[in-house]
Amino acid sequence: MKTFLFRVLFTALVVSLGTFLPAAAQEKVTLSGYLKNKASGEGLIGASIGVKELAGVGATTNEYGFYSLTLPKGNYTVLFSYLGYAPVSQAVTLTANKKLEVELAENNTALREVEITARKEDENVKTMEMSTLKMQVTELKKMPALMGEVDVIKAIQLMPGVQTAGEGTSGFYVRGGGVDQNLIQLDEAPVYNASHLLGFFSVFNADAIKDVQLYKGGIPAEYGGRLSSLLDIRMKEGNSKKLGVSGGISTLSSRLTVEAPIVKDKGSFIVSGRRTYADLFFKLSSDEALKENKLYFYDLNLKANYTLNDNNRLFVSGYFGRDVAKNLTASFNWGNATGTLRWNHLFNDRLFSNTTLIFSDFDYSLGSTDKSSEFTWTSHIKDYSLKNDYTFYINPRNQVKFGFTGTYHQFLPGKVVPGPESYFNEIKLNSTSAVDGALYLSNQQTLSPRLSVEYGLRLSGFANVGPGTIYEYGSDGRTKVDSTVYGSLEKIKSYGGLEPRFSAKFELNELSSIKTSYNRTRQYLHLISNSTSSLPFDVWVPSNQYTKPQYADQVAAGYFRNLHDNMFETSVEVYYKKMYNQIDYKDNAEIFLNNRIDTVLLRGEGKSYGAEFFVRKQKGALTGWLSYTLAKTDRKVPGINNGNAYPVRYDKRHSINLVTTYQLSPKWNIGANWVYYTGGAITMPVGRFEYNGKTFPVYSSRNGYRLPAYHRLDLSATLEKPQTAYKRYFSSWTFSVYNAYSRKNAFSISFRENEDNPGRTEAVKTYMFGIIPAVTYNFNF
């Protein structure tokens, strides 16, 4: 099978190269360069380049704003366009290879021309991408937000095919996959826990973010490591033209961002910080104990870039964030640190490379300061990675990508150090390490003006290595009979396999197209958690001889159509995903500080399928979208639910999201979100029995009941004072209300004895939020 797939891909690439060779004899030359924001000098991602004289011939910029277009010698009119910026048309005479850098200015339209500028008008019909969501920060900032804090992940949860983990949480599920099956990257560095305040907010400061893209399917071959999705977030590069300062004050936090040139038009930097201040109000309390409490989080985003010459550019970026919670007897903190060093190099006008060094560290600490129970519990996962990616622009019909990546992982699942007078004993879970790597090759090919395909292959490998101790168990799978100690970098267990990727687009006409995709994905790291969202003290572990890698196959098809001169964008996608080696837990499993976690894990298969409907209005004073998702996800794991299939906890059959904004006047903008979804599945007690004078509950089938349906309305109004030709200062006020009609949505269900009827058990619903108003002041100069 592997040999066959390699032959298919090799043959396809030979055919595509064959289309290039005759063309080379026609004396073609290459137009290449960068598209940038005129105001800041930042590269524009995904901008379009078209040639008026050659219908259907064009290119798009990559993640750094670079483009390359090979054409026959001649005179052309080249059109450069992006997002809602004013397009630029330029006459170009091509007699030899030519570099052309173009700057686009933001298109400030009158009220009657207001439109969503985050997308090209016909992008959903014309591009290869399907099962892909893009968000612009300017769009996010007009949406109602919890406590006034604009949140990238909260906005992602309002799109089709994406489910929230629960009220207020930043965890999310994509097409039936768990929270750990989403690869979240910030400037290519993995973020293992993207939550602040136990999940109520994400770690991404919108002021520092440039581009957000979520792949739900049709994942390109250069990405891997997770089953369900890739959330790719890119930070701003900084203003290379002039000093800029922006920030804001909200109900929850304050933010400040500074960006400026290092050398004008050659290099720039950005520093962006955010901090909450709930703990500052504790100081005002008359309660002395409360004054000592701490509860806050902070973020710091840093990035700089410098152009060495026409062919070389360096980027360095980092993120540092932490949550701190502390009172007189206990403390808890967790955080992420990431670092990325990138080198862009142009070998020639058609071969672009990017070499990246990556560091990522997620750690947490939990402790008690009470003398008799004093302890400190720490855990972390660290990554060190090297990536080398290439893009070869063969001709306008073929764009080949290839490269490799390698990562060294360090895992410390948990270590407890007791205090000198504590009754605790020292506990250290087995630490271990792992290495993984991948090679990939893909081609995006235009077969005809209407038919385009993208095909690729990823070969991934993984090895669990020492130092570490591996236990051997008896026939019952629980009793330890022996153990083996492995030295540093000594191989414990290795895995690997192929991950084919394919997608196709056929344009039915200028306004509609159909698309299809298939991808296989593999995941070698696993999150050990029995909660519905990713909590800081959950543990990441590598695959070993007991826990095999997860893998999944997903197929999807969609119909995309624009209506009324691209005013309305519509689509419907259907998908089916089969997942293998899915992890679940034995009944009454204890995973807390369990040094033999393999004894409580079970493995089985899962499947998810559904349909996603999407309508988006892009033009006019009223803009927004409506999405509806119909989905089903279940698992079948031997040893659970008598071997019968059961729904996962995050299975939510129906999901509706309505997001609207309305431009009342040049100064006033109002917005509303309405969210509805079916309640998640839970396991509930259905009876009880007594034994030796003790009462024990009898539970339903696994996840056999449902929480009540969830729905909520959020409202916002934004008052803007725009810049003028004489004043560069911009400011705005945003007034928002979260849960406007005070719906008491279930955060959790607990059970207790009924006070009026002893012996009878009643369910008690706990809800988290009522109506929450917020005010945010933003400024920019």
UniProtKB/TrEMBL annotation:
<keyword id="KW-0813">Transport</keyword>
<dbReference type="GO" id="GO:0009279">
    <property type="term" value="C:cell outer membrane"/>
</dbReference>
<dbReference type="InterPro" id="IPR036942">
    <property type="entry name" value="Beta-barrel_TonB_sf"/>
</dbReference>
<dbReference type="Pfam" id="PF13715">
    <property type="entry name" value="CarbopepD_reg_2"/>
</dbReference>
<dbReference type="InterPro" id="IPR037066">
    <property type="entry name" value="Plug_dom_sf"/>
</dbReference>
<dbReference type="InterPro" id="IPR039426">
    <property type="entry name" value="TonB-dep_rcpt-like"/>
</dbReference>
<feature type="signal peptide">
    <location>
        <begin position="1"/>
        <end position="25"/>
    </location>
</feature>
<dbReference type="InterPro" id="IPR012910">
    <property type="entry name" value="Plug_dom"/>
</dbReference>
<keyword id="KW-0812">Transmembrane</keyword>
<keyword id="KW-0998">Cell outer membrane</keyword>
<keyword id="KW-0472">Membrane</keyword>
<dbReference type="InterPro" id="IPR008969">
    <property type="entry name" value="CarboxyPept-like_regulatory"/>
</dbReference>
<protein>
    <recommendedName>
        <fullName>TonB-dependent receptor plug domain-containing protein</fullName>
    </recommendedName>
</protein>
<feature type="domain" description="TonB-dependent receptor plug">
    <location>
        <begin position="145"/>
        <end position="225"/>
    </location>
</feature>
<keyword id="KW-0732">Signal</keyword>
<keyword id="KW-1134">Transmembrane beta strand</keyword>
<comment type="similarity">
    <text>Belongs to the TonB-dependent receptor family.</text>
</comment>
<dbReference type="Pfam" id="PF07715">
    <property type="entry name" value="Plug"/>
</dbReference>
